[in-house]
Amino acid sequence: MKITVLGAGSWGTTLAILLASKRHEVRLWAHRPEFARALEADRENKRYLKGILFPASLHVVENLHDAVNAAEMIVTAVPSHALRATAAAFADLNLDGKVIVNVAKGIERNTGKRMSEVLLEALPAVTPEQIAALYGPSHAEEVARQQPTTVVACSVSETTARQVQEAFHTSAFRVYVNTDLIGVEIAGSVKNVIAIAAGISDGLGFGDNAKAAIITRGLAEISRLSAKLGADPLTMSGLSGIGDLVVTCLSRHSRNRYVGEQIGKGRKLDDILGEMSMVAEGVLSSKAVLELANRLGVDMPITRAVYEMLFEDKPAPQAILDLMEREPKPENY
After folding, report:
1. pLDDT by residue (tens digit) across 74-127?
2. Beta strands per DSSP E along 67-172
3. What is the mean pLDDT of residues 155-172?
4. Alpha-carbon distance 138 to 160, whole Å?
5. How many other β-carbons are positioned within 10 Å of the β-carbon of residue 321?
6. Within 10 A of 64 (CB to CB), how many other CB atoms are there?
7. What local confidence, expressed as pLDDT, does residue 279 receive?
8. Annotation: binding site for sn-glycerol 3-phosphate
């Protein structure tokens, strides 16, 4: 199959290598031409994925239109805040029959749109059945080294989801199928916000009890929001739900957890982000998720606390105290 991956960060590069290793004909598009040229010359992403060499069937390209035109399947691996602009840049092309697999996790600021909704708005000629998401607990560093990983391919069309499953599935990268796109996208996006909270707990020096509480009550927030939007509750117990939430809250690879840890240690957000070369999606998502929750009337106190610590300079110890001193409630509400 001819597959184009848009976005040459660590995850886009990892997926391009995985697909090329399956003998697909793969093109990897980088936003900056000079970076694309360096990748093609080095046959390695020295900035984001040092030490993992490109297979012979992986080619790095500079021209977005050429890359999209040549593909039967397009994988969008740009940051969530850049997805609309990237998609709009090739909206004029003939996309009939092409499957678009989004792997970026986030909720769009101001609109509250999920990534599949952003794609459908930016690409008016594309149908919902052409859109899929590939989500789950899958740090690029481990996938690139072929460590066992499981994810879910999701689309409103089971046929499309199975196409994605077949394209990506390997002995080290096991792909399941799901058709609950709302649940998969909401869970995969909001977990980044909860991971920041878990990192803040680490930065404050709290222990396993606090981390378990954040993960569990964070899942409750994700479940309430997704249910309000019409998702299947069972999705929350799956790979894009509890699976992705756990790995992002616990892993040393998690950029969102790292940001939270630094906030918990008293550092300022701008300073933290200024030294990072990769995107922590939960930072912007905290704004978008809170706006969406407020609009829908969904109670998300951990998400609100994360937003206040990131953007209102609320001291982390005070934010935690405020969470703990809220009015006692039943567990299931």
Report:
1. 999 999 999 999 999 999 999 999 999 999 999 998 899 999 999 999 999 999
2. 73-76, 99-102, 131-135, 149-154
3. 98
4. 21
5. 10
6. 17
7. 75
8. 105, 136, 138, 191, 244, 254-256
Structural domains of the chain in order of their starting residue, each with its CATH number: 2-179 (3.40.50.720), 182-325 (1.10.1040.10)
Q: Which residues are catalytic?
A: 191
- CA separation for the pair 138, 133 (Å, rounded): 13
Nearest Cα to 266, choosing from 205, 190, 194, 330? 205
The span from the first CA to the last CA of the chain, in angstroms, equals: 47
What residues form the annotated binding site for NAD(+)?
Answer: 7-12, 140, 255
How confident is the model over 200-254, as pLDDT tens digits? Answer: 999 999 999 999 999 999 999 999 999 999 999 999 999 999 999 999 999 988 9
Binding residues for substrate: 105, 255-256
Q: Taking the CA atoms of the chain, what radius of gyration do you get in angstroms?
A: 19
Look at the block and give the residue holding tokens 């407020």.
294
Q: Is the pTM of this model over 0.85?
A: yes
Query: Closest Cα to residue 35, out of 46, 27, 26?
Result: 46
